[in-house]
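Entry type: protein chain
Record version: 2
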Amino acid sequence: MATNETMMQYFEWYLPNDGLWWKRCAAKADNLKNLGITSVWLPPAYKGTSQEDVGYGVYDMYDLGEFDQKGTVRTKYGTKDEYLDAIRSFHDNGIKVFADIVLNHRMGGDETEKTTAVTDDPENRLEQVGGVQEVKVWSKFTFPGRKGKYSSFTWNHTHFSGTDWDEKSQSGDLIYRFTGKKWDPDTDPEKGNFDYLMGMNVDMDNPEVVKETKKWLMWYLQTTGIDGLRLDAVKHISFPFYKDLLSYARKESGLVLPAVGEYWSGDIGRLLYYLDSVDNEMSLFDVALHYNFYNASVTGGEYPMNAIFDNSLVKERPDHAVTFVDNHDTQYGQSLQSFIEDWFKPLAYALILLREEGLPCIFYSDYYGNPVQNRPLVPNLGKLIKTRHEYAYGEQRDYLEDQNVIGWTRSGDAEHPDSGLAVVMSNAEGGSIRMEMGKEYAGEEFYDAIGNCPEPVTVDEDGFGEFRTEGGNVAVWLRKHAFENLIVNE
């Protein structure tokens, strides 16, 4: 039986550094299956600059918590064996695993090298502000703890195009572009050119780098058995690079290998341009929709809810949109902080979970809460996920005309018993919309699964019902039998 795909980002920035995360993942796989989660995005599994590293300060991508490097064998999340056990547990429960792939940069080099570089303005990388000078950079990655196991490749300054730290002068105010290197022009135009992001910037034009990256990816796929890729920071990497890498990996592995890229921009034009550049070989996170949600959450009733999907990827290219509300980068204190206000989160999740377009991605902290930052879980999020899994099927009829009160219905289908629903939400005063369910529902009662509207709605003989919501909230109307059987076991 076909079912709605639903992803969960199964981590957040502030997890404890106790090495137990992979074990927790394995223990929760059964719960996620019963909830209706069909895939999980796990954090970067390889060794970072320290045991506390969340995974984006990449040191050795062949070390999945196996070697004594950077003062630790395990990563923040656990050991290699525990990681592989977690993947098997998800697979045993029919859940696909997306691995977080970070190829843009390396950090925590083992030795320094002397080379020459020019300096570029950090705010306009197309503007050179200093001539050729000798620099001392952390560009040698020899991986002494691994001792050549899995790969004998070691990195030196020729494999990178630049960095932001000169050990010789103890300076990190400028960006050092190595002599003979250029920033790749096929990257995001922010800051003039956004090839450089952080650390030692990997030179994707170097044939040795490309060869080693392909070798590593094939090793990773064979070693872990993961199903898909979450590609970090794609706007900072040569646009043709991932098109070629994905094509190669799919051909060599024989896997479908779905991929979703993180292109952090609220500009829908840039997202569409990137998808065109890679021939739609991947999906992208719908950052533009995230910012619509954020703006709606901070402006309240002033935001035009009938424009909530304007200039979003899910509207322009739904088959390549992974929709989300928040993630580890938008959390408070993080570089892309834009955390959706609590009151709006149930509305935002209904907008990504209960409609037919896009692949929704649930944020771990929204489902479980975040005690470190004293953030609550999103109320009724489990019900919304379960409702998507069991009842959000059939033809979609939209009622998105009003400035504040919008809604839609799903007509249900024969494959999913008791499916079909109506959704109404408001960012201002409460209200109602007369919406069509279909004449086959005439006389049937619908109940609000969220619980804010206690009185049922009866569908009239023409197949319409007057579905309502409380102010600043969402109501999800289900058929009586579906409402009675909507049980979420956390």
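Comment: The domain at 106-203 is CATH 2.40.30.140 (Elongation Factor Tu (Ef-tu); domain 3).
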